[in-house]
Every structure is written in C-alpha cells, then in structure tokens.
Amino acid sequence: MKTDISQLAVMGGEPLFGAPLHVGRPNLGNRERLLARINEMLDSRWFSNNGPFVQEFEKKVAERIGVRHCIAMCNGTVALEIAIRAAGLRGEVIIPSFTFIATAHALQWQEITPVFCDIDPRTHLIDPAQVQSLITPRTTGIIGVHTWGQPCDIESLSQIAGRRGLTLLFDASHAFGGSYYGKMIGGFGAAEVFSFHATKFFNTFEGGAIVTNNDDLAAKIRLMKNFGFHGYDDVEYIGTNGKMNEVCAAMGLTGLESLDEFIAHNRRNYLQYRRELAALPGIRMLAWNESESCNYQYIILEIEEQLTEISRDQLIQILHAEKILARRYFYPGCHRMEPYRSFFPHAGLLLPETERLARKILVLPTGNAIGEEEVSGICRIIWLAVTNGKAIREALSGRQKV
Ligand code: T4K
Asked: What residues flank ligand 1, with Cβ below 6 Å?
C-alpha cells in the first residue's frame, strides 16, 4: 500500500497495477454458451441478414423492455442516424452538448444542424428549461440523452415536444436496463436508441438497437437498415446497411443471460467506491437513483479543484501512471469539437454548466474486470493524491501534463 507521495508512479515509484485498468473493459457472459452459439451459426451457414440469432435477440430485448419493436443494428451511431432519418427530422434538432460526439454527428452527417443545449449540473442531463429557449421555426425535434444511464427529464421534454409539435427521440446508448418511474427506458418518445458497443456494460462486440412502440416507424426502420429493400428486388426508401450480424447477436443473447450479474457486480463496485470516497473533500460522486432500475455502468466523479488543490488533469496523470486509465468523458463538449466549434465559435456562452462540468469530470474503471481489491487500490491512490494535493501540485509543476 502506498502511503507517501514519493511512492506514486508519477513520482518515479512502481505502478500499483501490472495490467491497465480500463473504464470500458468489456463484460463477458458465459464463454461456453457463446462458443456453442457461434458453432451453431457456423454449422448453419447463416451469418447475417436477419438470421435466427438476431431475431431471437430482438424478441428478448423487446420483451425485457416491454416495447413492441426492437430493431437490432450494427452499432449505436448508425442506429441513431436511421432513427433520425426514419422519424423525418431535418432543419435543427436540439441535443445536449455534453454527450458523446456520435449524437451530434448522427445529425450533421445528414446535414441536420445540432443545436447544443446546456445541462442540469446536478444530473449532467439536458436542461428542459433551456430546450424551450432554443426552439426556432427550423426546429423539428429534440434528442434527449440518458447520460451515464440515468433517465433525462422525460416528462418535461415530452410536454415541450407535444406543445411545440416536435419529434422526441432518446439517445439511450448508456441506459439499457434502466427505468423511469418504474417503466423501462426504451419505451419513451417516438423511439429510443441503445448502443451495445464493447465498452458498454452489456455488449454485442459492436451493436445497437432502435426500440419503439410505433408500428409504422418500426416498419420503415426495418427497411432502411436493409438498403430500403422490401422483398428481393423492390426498394421502397433510400436505405443503408445497418444490420447486426449473427456473431454479434450470439454475444448479445449470451450477455442477456448474465445481465443481472453484470448489474449486481457494477452495483457492488459503485457502493464500494461511494463508501471509500464519501469522506474525501472536493470529490463529488454522481449518485444513482436507487428507487429506479439502474445499470451502474459508469462511476462519475467531479473534482472540485479549489478543495482538492490538485487539478482534474493532474489527478488523471497520477492515475494513468498507476495504470488506472480514468477518462474525462465528454470533455470538452461537442460544441468544442469540429466541425461544430468552427460553425458555432461562441456556443460556449450559452453552455456554462457544460463548460464547468467538462473541466471537472473524471470517469473511473468498473465492470466485471474490476473487483474489490482494484476499487480499494484506486480509492487509496485518489486519497493519497487529493490529501497531498498541494505538495503533488508543486512537485508536478513543470512536468508533462496529460
Ligand atoms: N451516443 C452516446 C451517448 C454514446 O456514448 C455512444 C458511444 C454512442 C452514441 C455511439 O454508440 P456506438 O456507435 O459506439 O455503438 C467509447 C466507445 O467507443 C463508444 O461506444 C462510447 N459511446 C463512448 C462513451 O466510449 P472511446 O473513444 O472511449 O473508446 P476506447 O477505444 O478509448 O475504449 C475505452 C476503454 O475501453 C479503453 O481504455 C480500452 C477499453 N477497451 C475498449 C474496447 C473497444 C477494452 O478493454 N476492450 C475493447 O474491446 O469510446
């Protein structure tokens, strides 16, 4: 156990961990079950194009969430692009800037302007009050993002969308397994989009899905994700290739069987982090609302620099040196990335909370590759760094920053 700052790897000591600890280390279900499915797929010679595993996966996801339709996709980004197109969005669409860049790109890719909205600093979620003020005659929709897996203020967003005749979609990439007032995320708005990327607590290697209760929209999405084909040689819409393949669906079916274990493991990690960091001044950990179903897949800290005396980036530098690969999602905010920062160079003026949060956010490793011992080790390093903030700051000044 390291007790003195001279033992920190950033000061020349040995790293605490031999192998790196990742934020997005994929969860694995039962390997034998997965391999059996893959063998079955190889024997059947059915690899893609709405195969039996994809159909079973869609059925199981829809059942679990309680929605009429699940359309599995090759990834969350293409799922977003297709949902946006199928729902008829154009002109301007309001989204939070504090999200993964894919939310914005899925619009801009189709020459729809993402209009960046600020967040509620307590939850990191889109602020419905500001959404209202961003609506213009060109606005056709709102995409709420259930950031970190917490539901956004669906009620307020639905009211605004209803009143102003806008289409409401949700980027639920982080929120598989979560609920809002007891109802599973996935059943809200015109449609919701999940990502099942390897770094998500539930993954299909690469993958995603659109879920909706709207029959017409679902039919359109099914055609669009398969080039617009209706039958062998009739194309009804402009479409693309958004199909999930059978290996990914096999991984998804196997992961679904372990979903409750993944969540239980994440919850244990979350509670341990919370216990071990609670008394540390200057560190705020985002709390899950345990009256709802949660997936606990992200461990989110805000570093209050004036209390820790060490900056967020210095803390990351210290953690990385120990091979704890903490991340600063979603720094610096979409509005500060291209092409948006060139299009809207002053967008930050309307996004003070996003700017503040992007400067202090830090995401820690969790998932079933991280256990009690790793969480303890990570927390001890954070304690050592923060309680010696001033001395470390002085020692680090002049060294290379992350
Ligand atoms: N909307 C939102 C709100 C999203 O967060 C995302 C994706 C999307 C839409 C789009 O969904 P997809 O099209 O991706 O399905 C990661 C993921 O690539 C991305 O899926 C995710 N959000 C985003 C939040 O995080 P990076 O740039 O952090 O990935 P990377 O390669 O740095 O991986 C993170 C950590 O995980 C690393 O330390 C390495 C480790 N890792 C990663 C992979 C892929 C592994 O240990 N094994 C692996 O197989 O973006």
From this structure: 22-26, 75-77, 99-100, 102-103, 145, 171, 173-174, 195, 197-199, 208, 325, 329
pTM for this predicted structure? 0.96
Q: Which two tokens stand for residue 222?
A: 């099914």
Q: Which of 197, 330, 334 to mutate to test the pocket of ligand 1 (most atoms within 8 A of CB)?
A: 197
Atom 36, ligand 1: residue with shortest CA distance: 24
Structure confidence by residue, pLDDT tens digits, 253-296: 999 999 999 999 999 999 999 999 999 999 999 999 999 999 99
Q: Ligand 1 pocket check: which of 126, 146, 199 to mutate, most ligand atoms within 8 Å of Cβ?
A: 199
* 383/389 Cα distance (integer angstroms): 10
Look at 60-64, 84-88, 309-313 and tell me which has the smallest mean pLDDT: 309-313
The predicted-structure confidence for 135-155, as pLDDT tens digits, reads as follows 999 999 999 999 999 999 999
Nearest residue to 270 (alpha-carbon basis) of 378, 357, 195, 361: 378
Write down the pLDDT at residue 399: 60
Ligand 1 centroid distance, CA of 295 (Å): 17
